[in-house]
Automatic annotation (TrEMBL), chain A:
Name of the protein: Pyruvate dehydrogenase (Acetyl-transferring) E1 component subunit alpha
GO molecular function, one term: oxidoreductase activity, acting on the aldehyde or oxo group of donors, disulfide as acceptor
Biological processes per GO annotation: branched-chain amino acid catabolic process
Keyword Oxidoreductase annotated: yes
Key words, A-Z: Oxidoreductase, Pyruvate, Thiamine pyrophosphate
Domain of life: Bacteria
Taxonomic lineage of the native organism: Bacteria, Bacillati, Actinomycetota, Actinomycetes, Kitasatosporales
From TrEMBL, chain B:
Organism expressing this protein natively: Streptomyces canus
A molecular function (GO) term: magnesium ion binding
Pfam families cross-referenced by the UniProt entry: Transket_pyr (PF02779), Transketolase_C (PF02780)
The protein, known as: 2-oxoisovalerate dehydrogenase
Record InterPro entries: THDP-binding, Transketo_C/PFOR_II, Transketolase-like_Pyr-bd, Transketolase_C
Listed SUPFAM superfamilies: Thiamin diphosphate-binding fold (THDP-binding), TK C-terminal domain-like
Length: 382, 331
């Protein structure tokens, strides 16, 4: 066969024309972008007893998380942080799922789960150590059952699965939640965590924030089926929830956690949301996506829609919003001051904790390093 | 009942590891054994034979066939307070787990500023000489020794296999435990009530005056044969069994080289960037004025591990090590 004839031949079927095996994906939504409460026979019961105070709490969480996030972006621009991965636009997915958790549940985050960290009670300033470059994870994972941020994409889903296997062995009724994104869904580790959790029936919730973009690659570059449908092939349920709807995110996560606690094994939740900002402060989304897309998602803003609901249902008054504004500014100030005051680590910290039980080479090199450092002082003194 | 209390038993190296795992499972409820086929089958080398029957499927766990998943879930179990001992079925199968080992397991303690510990043992049957197919005969220890946060050990005999496994499981650091698969069936005395040597301390297994042979794992036995042959020619070789590749016991190597003034390092792994290279560099620094000859290395070539019919050409053998001994002594 000649090259020409190959080129001339039409493909019998291209990936683009193949029909998806699914029908239109179903999206669990309890609050419309306009802030209207819609009924849902399956998931309403998980938020049926939510009080106005709790709703205001969710709103406060989202506003403060966004304020913290904006402050961190500014601090990066001012040179106080080396990098920042903004969660702008994903507040509802994170606060909704984060507030569904019990204290004894355990969280395995990516590096963007600032809202979940907030729900767990991790001081926001602690999150900034790694982005400032003073440590690689500045909190005790067991202090708040919130594991360290994981940078390598998808690795933490296996840790979550193993941890959940341990929970089951202990006979506890805690649940574990693993956060990851649409990009991570292509990683082998995520597929392996689905396999392990399924065959061991591990009490883990896989919470995938599909924010539509893995740096510059759209979700279409990762998958041909809606991501939540991946679960079916592994033998556990998957659900797509409106990730910009804090109430729906809360309800669906509660349902999934309940499944885990009652011995029904893993669940995949795909929170359909949007990364309104750049991947990180080093990224330039204008090179790969249109402004119109972002504008369309801004109309579905997670904070705006809860505000509309709170106002329409008279669950919050002007005083609440004004007070929150003050609190928000105070948080920004506190974070700014804390970061600026964050000292560089002692130079010998680089040898610390390389090993728990010590290592002869580390001891030797630390001593050499100390002697080298001391040689400067000696030189000046001589 | 017999009057004397027999504590020493003659057993094969594989059985010694089996007994050590059994003891660990028996004494610490947090110890788990995980891997492919480790349950009913007892592992492809039968190292875990009978353990699932006695300790149950909940503690001796057959895993899905996914190495990254095995190590990744072991990390999660360790975070929950367990002490998993995972088996990688063969040396050449560890690489799907390499990311989890290097990027996660090795660094978790440090990045948590010491808050979490990673007491995970990764057992890897390694090395050649058994006529296996591709990817079943490799010696990747240097690839792990290069990574801070990991400890890398390899026993050469049943007694060390038993005790080093006990110590590896008790370690709060991750230990990559390389088992010399061609020595699995070699027998030796194991005293289960002895006081073991420290895990990372090298042992002089034969004293000599003319040259030091340094080896670990499967090559220690070969070095004994080399020393026997050399003795017939009137040469007195000292043999040091390193036992640990990370950390390396440079003090013991230095002490021996200061005595013999000559050093040959033997391992199955490729010589290029192998552990012998690190030993040569450090010993040259430490013993520059003691050395009568450059440190020589005998090991695999910079070529993919060959098909079984060629492996004897690739692996260090009696004559290749003797040749290096002669070259060193000729300086």
């Amino acid at each position: 066969m000649t090259v020409e004839s190959t080129a001339a031949r039409k493909p019998r079927r291209s990936a683009g024309t193949r029909k998806s095996p699914s029908t239109k994906p179903e999206l669990v939504q309890l609050l419309t972008p306009e802030g209207k409460r819609v009924k849902n026979a399956e998931y309403d019961k998980y938020v049926a007893d939510i009080t106005p105070e709790e709703l205001r709490g969710l709103y406060r969480d989202m506003v403060l998380t966004r304020r913290f996030d904006a402050e961190a972006t500014s601090l990066q621009r001012q040179g106080e942080l080396g990098l920042w991965a903004s969660l702008l636009g994903q507040e509802a997915a994170q606060i909704g799922s984060g507030r569904a958790l019990r204290d004894d549940d355990y969280v395995f985050p990516t590096y963007r789960e600032h809202g979940v960290a907030w729900c767990r009670g991790v001081d926001p300033t602690n999150l900034l150590g790694m982005f400032r470059g003073v440590n690689n994870g500045g909190w005790d994972p067991n202090g708040n059952n919130f594991h360290l941020y994981t940078i390598v994409i998808g690795s933490q889903t296996l840790h979550a699965t193993g941890y959940a296997m341990g929970v089951a062995k202990d006979g506890a009724d805690s649940a574990v939640i693993a956060y990851f994104g649409d990009g991570a869904s292509s990683q082998g580790d995520v597929a392996e965590s689905f396999t392990f959790s399924a065959v061991y029936n591990a009490p883990v919730v896989f919470f995938c924030q599909n924010n539509q973009w893995a740096i510059s690659e759209p979700t279409e570059r990762q998958t041909r089926v809606p991501l939540y449908q991946r679960a079916q092939g592994f033998g556990f349920p998957g659900v797509r929830v409106d990730g910009n709807d804090v109430l729906a995110s809360l309800a669906v996560t509660k349902w999934a956690l309940e499944r885990a606690r009652s011995g029904e094994g893993p669940t995949l939740v795909e929170a359909y949301t949007y990364r309104m900002g750049a991947h990180t402060t080093s990224d330039d989304p204008s090179k790969y996506r249109a402004d119109e897309e972002r504008e369309a998602w801004e109309a579905k803003d997670p904070i705006l829609r809860l505000r509309r609901y709170l106002e329409a249902s008279n669950h919050a008054d002007e005083g609440f919003f004004a007070e929150l504004e003050t609190e928000s500014e105070a948080l920004g100030r506190r974070v700014r001051e804390a970061v600026r005051a964050m000292p560089d680590p002692d130079r010998f910290a680089l040898f610390e904790h390389a090993y728990a039980d010590g290592h002869a080479l580390v001891d030797e090199e630390r001593a050499e390093f100390a002697a080298y450092q001391a040689s400067f002082t000696d030189g000046e003194g001589a | 009942m017999a009057a004397e209390h027999v504590t020493s038993t003659n057993m094969a190296l594989a059985k010694a590891i089996n007994e050590s795992l059994r003891r660990a499972l028996d004494t610490d409820p947090k110890v788990l054994v995980m891997g492919e086929d480790v349950g009913k089958l007892g592992g492809v080398f039968r190292v875990t034979d009978g353990l699932q029957k006695d300790f149950g499927e909940d503690r001796v766990i057959d895993t899905p066939l996914a190495e990254s998943g095995i190590v990744g879930t072991a990390i999660g179990l360790a975070l929950r307070g367990y002490r998993p001992v995972v088996e990688i079925q063969f040396d050449g199968f560890v690489f799907p787990a390499y990311d989890q080992i290097v990027t996660q397991l090795a660094k978790m303690h440090a990045r948590s500023l010491g808050k979490v510990k990673m007491p995970v043992v990764v057992r890897i049957p390694y090395g050649g000489g058994i006529g296996a197919v591709e990817h079943h005969s490799e010696s990747p220890e240097a690839l792990f020794a290069h990574v801070a946060g990991l400890k890398v050990v390899s026993p050469s005999n049943p007694s060390d296999a038993y005790w080093m496994m006990q110590q590896a499981i008790q370690s709060d650091d991750p230990v990559i435990f390389f088992e010399p698969k061609r020595r699995y069936w070699d027998k030796g005395e194991v005293n289960t009530e002895a006081i073991p040597d420290p895990l990372h301390k090298a042992k002089v297994v034969r004293e000599g005056t003319d040259l030091t042979l340094v080896a670990y794992g499967p090559m220690v036995k070969l070095c004994k044969e080399v020393a026997d042959a050399a003795a017939e020619e009137g040469k007195s070789l000292e043999i040091l069994d390193l036992r640990s590749v990370s950390p390396l016991d440079f003090d013991s190597i230095q002490a021996s080289v200061e005595k013999t003034r000559r050093l040959v390092v033997v391992h199955e792994a490729p010589v290029f960037f192998g552990s012998g290279a690190e030993i040569a560099a450090r010993i040259t620094e430490r013993c520059f004025y003691h050395l009568e000859a450059p440190v020589l290395r005998v090991g695999g070539y910079h070529a993919p591990y060959p098909p079984a019919r060629l492996e004897e050409e690739y692996l260090p053998g009696l004559d290749r090590v003797l040749d290096a001994v002669d070259r060193s002594l000729a300086y």
